[in-house]
Amino acid sequence: MYSLEFCNNRLYYLDQTQLPLKENWRECKSLKDGCCAIRELQVRGAPLIGVFAAYALCIGMKNFSLSQKIFLKQFHNAVNYLKSSRPTAVNLFWALERLEKVVIRYSANTVSQIKKAVVQEAKAIHKEDIQLCRRMGEYGVKLVKKGYNILTHCNTGFLATSGEGTALSVIFSAHKKYRDIHVYVDESRPLLQGARLTAWELVKKKVPYTVICDDMAAYLMQQGKVDVIFVGADRIAANGDTANKIGTYNLAVNAFYHKVLFYVVAPFSTFDLGISSGKDIPIEERSHDEVRIVFGKAQITPKNAHVYNPAFDVTPAKLITAIITDKGIIRPPYRKNIRKVIASN
Ligand code: MRU
Question: Is the model's pTM score more than 0.85?
Answer without folding.
Answer: yes
